[in-house]
Amino acid sequence: MTLTPGVRQKADTAFSQARRRAFFRRLWRFLTRQQEQGLLSFEEVRHKLKIRGQHYAGLQTIPIDKIAGSVGRYQEFNRAFLPTQEHIRERWKRIYEVAHGAGFPPIDVYQIGEVYFVRDGHHRVSVLKELGATTVEATVTELETAISLSADVGEEELNLKEEYAWFLDETGLDELIDEFELQFTLPGQYAKLLEHIAVHRHFLGLREMREIAYSEAVVRWYNEVYAPVVEVIREDGILEGFPGRTEADLYLWIIEHRHYLGERYDHEVPLEEAAVAFSREFRSGSSKKQLETDTIGSRSGSGKRPRFSATVSIFGSGSAPDGHPVLAQAERLGQLLAEAGFGVMCGGYAGTMEAVSRGAAQAGGEVIGVTMDLFSERSANPWLTKERRVKDFFPRLKRLTSADAFIVLQGGIGTLTEATLTWSLLQTGQIHKKPFIFVGENWQRLFAAFRAETLMSEADFELVTVVDGAEEAIAVLEQALAPTP
Fold first, then answer.
1. Are residues 139 and 106 in contact, defined by beta-carbon separation less than 8 angstroms?
2. Is the pLDDT of residue 443 over 90?
3. What integer pLDDT is reported at residue 305 of this predicted model?
4. Which of 385, 366, 355 is nearest to 312 (CA)?
5. Is-contact 310 301, C-beta < 8 A?
C-alpha cells in the first residue's frame, strides 16, 4: 500500500486536533467542576461487579459509543477515545493511514452489561471515532453479572454498583426472586439491609421455634417486609415527592421514621401511618435536604451526626488465624471508630483488616480498603465501602499514611514493616506529627527490647502511644483530634 504525503500530513493534523479536543474537554470539565471521565478499567469493574462467568459471543458489529473501557491502556485515551498521551502519536498516525487503505481487522473486546472494554484495538477505535464511524467489527467475550452497566457510568455510580453486587453476592436475592428492583442512590445503605434480614431471620426463628435457613430469611424479608413498604410507596405516590430517589431509598427512610415514631409515642405505629407521616414531613425542599444530609452522615440509622471528619489507618495482620483474640479486638476497634464518627482505612484484605472493616461497616461507618495490583489473585474483603487500588506497596503506604491518625494491631512482618516505615516518616518530618497508637501489651514488651537493643532515642518513642485496648485508643484519638470550639 502506497500512501501520498498528503495522507501522512492529514494523519498528523488529525492527531493534533484530537489531542487539542482532549485538552479542552478536560479544561471544560475542570472549570465546570465535573469529574474527568477516563476509560473504565476492566480489572476494576470486573472486581467490583462480582463477575460470575463468561462466554465467547463471536464476531459482532458493535456501536462505538458503547466502548467505554480498556484492558490495561485506560490512561492513554479518555472516555471519548480522544488520545491523552503524546507518545502514542506515531502509532495513532499509522492506524489513521491504514484506514485510508486496506481497512482494519476486527478489534477484540470484553462486554460487561452494555459496556465494551477493548482488549486489542484501542488506536483503531480512536481513529474510527475521529473519522466519524458509528460501528466497528469486534470479536466479543461476554462476562456475566447481575448488575447493569451503561457506557456513561461515573465513579460514584460505579461504587454504588459495587455495593449492590456485594449485597447480591451475600444474599443471592437475584437467584431467589424472579423479578425485583432494589437499588439505592446513596452509599452505605446495602449493609443496613443485611441487618434487616438478620433481624427478620431472628424473629422468625423465635416465632416458629426452628432454625431459619438464610435463603429462606432473605425471601421472606423481601416478601414480608420490603415488598409491603414498596407497595405503600407506590399506592400513595410518595416517590413523586422525592425526584432522583428510588423506592429502596424511601424504604429505609420510612422504616427508620417508623422506628422514631414508635419511640416517640411509645407504641408500634402502623406502616401506612408511618409512610404518610414521613411523606408529609420530608417531601418539602428544606426538610428533604436535611433528611438526605442526615442519611449520608448517619451510622446504621442512629440519626447522630459524626463528631469527627478524620480518617484513621489501621495496620494489622492479613493472615491472623480464625479465633485469634486480635480479630475480636480489631472488630471492636472498627465499631468504636465508626460510632465515634471516624473513617477507617486499611489494607482491604482478610484477617484483622476484614475484622476491623466488618466492625466499622456494621456500625454504619466508611471503610476504605487500599488494595494492590501486586495481589491481583486476592479478593478484597466484602465490608469495604470504597476500594482504592494501587500498584504495589509503596503507593499503598503513601495512601495509608495520608490518614489523620494511625493504629497498629498485633501482626507479622508486613505489619512491622508498615509501622516502622510510618514511624520513620514521622521521625524525619516527611509527614507531620499525628496520633500513632499501638494497641496491646505485646508492644510494651517489644518496645522495651527496642530501648535495650537498638540506638533509638526517647524522642523516637515520644512519637508513639501504647494502649491496652480499643477503648483506650478511641480516647486518645478523641483527645488528640477533637475539633476546636
1. yes
2. yes
3. 36
4. 366
5. no
Contacts 24+ apart (CB under 8 A), 259-264: 259/301, 260/303
Q: Is 304 a member of any domain? A: no
Please return the burial class of 67, using the count of CB atoms within 10 Å of its CB with bins 0-12, 13-18 and 19+: buried
90 and 130 co-located in one domain: yes
With 50 as the cut, is the pLDDT of residue 298 above it?
no
Please give the full DSSP string across 259-280, using - where no structure is assigned.
Answer: HHHHHHHTSPPPHHHHHHHHHH
Q: Tell me phi and psi for residue 268, to 5 degrees.
A: -70, 130
Stretch among 96-100, 139-143, 176-180, 370-374 having the lowest mean pLDDT: 96-100
234-238: which pairs have CB atoms within 8 A and are 24 or more residues apart? 236/272, 236/275, 236/276, 236/279, 238/275, 238/278, 238/279, 238/283
Residue-wise pLDDT tens digits, 49-86 = 988 899 999 999 999 999 999 998 777 888 888 988 88
pLDDT at position 295 is 54
Does an H or E element contain 480, and which? helix 470-481
**Residue 183 backbone class (left: φ over 0; alpha: ψ -120 to 50; beta: rest):** beta
The CATH number of whichever domain residue 97 belongs to comes to 3.90.1530.10
φ, ψ at 230 (rounded to 5°)? -60, -40
Q: How far is CA 154 from the centre of its chain?
A: 12
C-alpha 201/C-alpha 123 separation (Å) is: 54
pTM of the entire predicted model: 0.55
- Residues 235, 381 share a domain: no
Specify whether 238 is located in the same domain as 211. Answer: yes
Same-domain check for residues 134 and 159: no
Enclosing domain of residue 18: 5-144
Statement to judge: residues 246 and 186 lie in one domain:
yes
Continuous segment of H or E residues that includes residue 99: helix 89-99
